[in-house]
Amino acid sequence: MVSTSEPSDGLNQVIPRSEHTLSRSILSSAALNVLQRLSKAGYRALLVGGGVRDPLLGITPKDFDVATDATPEQIHNLFRRSRIIGRRFQIVHVRDGRETIEVSTFRAAPQDDPQPTGKNKFELGSTGQIIRDNQFGSIKEDAFRRDFTVNALYYDIKDFSLIDYTGGLQDLQQRTLKMIGDPLQRYREDPVRMIRAIRLASKLAFNLDPATAAPIKQNAKLLQDVSPARLFEEVNKLFLAGYCHETYHMTLQYGLFEALFPEAHSLIQDSESLQLFISQALINSDNRVEQGKPVVPAFLFSVLLWPQAHKRHQQLLEAGEPPVPALQKASIAAISAQQAYVSIPKRFTQNIREMWEMQPRLIQRRKNRIYPLLEHPRFRAAYDFLLLREQSGESLENAGQWWTDFQDANKEQRDAMVDALPGAKKKRSRPRRKKLQNGNPP
Ligand code: ATP
Ligand code: MG
């Protein structure tokens, strides 16, 4: 067990059970299990983060985070279905049923140790970024190394009290998102906190405290020091959570969109139609979340990277390439240009390319390609994408409406629609093409 210190000075606030509105019913059975098991084994265990913050605001939390004085190894030894993850910041994922509870050991804030060295300590990179942060500490120290005051509220199942070392409860009541400590230093330690500031302010409909907001725009470029794989995860959290339209405008306002998607950003500056396209896609995505429909990273990234794919496509068309191969080349180049900033895993890039590469085919509507296109696994997404392009003012031969009508039509009507396509011939005596592979021409 690592050392703990109880609240001892006048700034500490322990709010007893009778004086706050949280009840243990907010806890999922998995969270309760983890807390009780740690507690029975003699460790201190508290709920922290969104699992405390959100119920205080009447919001159902996305997940539960637990803080404890048990070390990662001790936690891992206690739970059979657990995994120690992370290098920069070790936490333990404990699986319980379908839930994953994130359990972290109390950490000390970096400034508490003037000489950061050694295996279990933190390390700072050249720009002040924390490379390793595994210096264990007391619960109070743990509170101060967290990001925002409202994220540093603890719910103690020992006596159901609420513990607030940083003034989080007051900020929560005033609906203010406020960084703990010096905001610029905290952003330097971990630039992802700038993204979290925007995400949480949108999610909670909070005001950003002026001192917390002030350094973001100037320091957005610090995100280039963050691993593109971690940024992929963060961008997904930003844009798939059901409030992405608002978040998107905030990322533009605070220079974060430019830092994450520099090429797309410069292209949308000159194009109202691209601005409309992205806005409309994000509004649709928020609506889908509200209706309980899935939203997927591939669609999100196909939208965010479309400006750079489209530009390259246009350039290749102007150079005389036929539309389909031009779009194939443009897609590969657009995705690879993005990987240095936000890297998109291969399992998604394939889908993104298919969605884009179906665009000219959906517009051309060749008679013998209609049914294979309709059956393609990416048809629905590619069709939605086409509609978005039309909605944002692109003129695409009215193909969106045609495909809408085609899907609504019965077999007879469909055949008639195919026959009526310009240039469509009745039946060829001998097929000119080889077999289709995945609906794509060879
Ligand atoms: P949500 O789960 O709704 O996204 P959350 O605040 O719970 O919000 P998590 O990513 O689950 O976010 O993190 C849990 C807690 O860990 C946070 O509330 C905060 O106390 C702490 N935390 C997370 N990321 C950071 C960070 N980059 N710097 C400092 N503390 C962090
Ligand atoms: Mg959480």
Describe the protein's architecture and organization.
This protein has 2 domains: 1-181, Beta Polymerase, domain 2, CATH 3.30.460.10; 227-421, cca-adding enzyme, domain 2, CATH 1.10.3090.10. Helix content is 49%, strand content 11%. The protein is built from 22 helices and 12 strands. The strands form 3 sheets. An 8-stranded mixed beta sheet has the order 1-10-9-2-3-6-5-4, sandwiched between helices. The chain has a two-stranded antiparallel ribbon with strand order 7-8. The protein is elongated, with a radius of gyration of 26 Å. Residues 2-10, 112-121 and 438-442 have low confidence and may be disordered. Bound molecules: adenosine-5'-triphosphate and magnesium ion. The site of magnesium ion has 5 residues, from loops.
- Output the structural class: alpha+beta
What bound compounds does this protein have?
Answer: adenosine-5'-triphosphate, magnesium ion
Give a short account of the largest sheet.
8 strands, mixed
Number of strands: 12
Structural features:
442 residues; alpha+beta; Beta Polymerase, domain 2; cca-adding enzyme, domain 2; 2 domains; eight-stranded mixed β-sheet; two-stranded antiparallel ribbon; disordered N terminus; binds adenosine-5'-triphosphate; binds magnesium ion
Please give a quick description of this structure.
The protein has about 450 residues and is of the alpha+beta class.
Topology, please?
Blueprint lengths: L12 E3 L13 H12 L4 E4 L1 H7 L8 E4 L3 H7 L3 E4 L5 E6 L2 E7 L16 E3 L5 E4 L5 H7 L7 E4 L4 E4 L3 H6 L2 E2 L5 H7 L2 H13 L2 E2 L1 H4 L2 H4 L8 H12 L4 H10 L2 H5 L1 H8 L2 H19 L6 H8 L1 H13 L4 H16 L7 H19 L5 H6 L3 H13 L7 H10 L2 H9 L23
Parallel strand pairs: 3-6, 11-12
Antiparallel strand pairs: 1-10, 2-3, 2-9, 4-5, 5-6, 7-8, 9-10
The structure holds adenosine-5'-triphosphate (ATP) and magnesium ion.
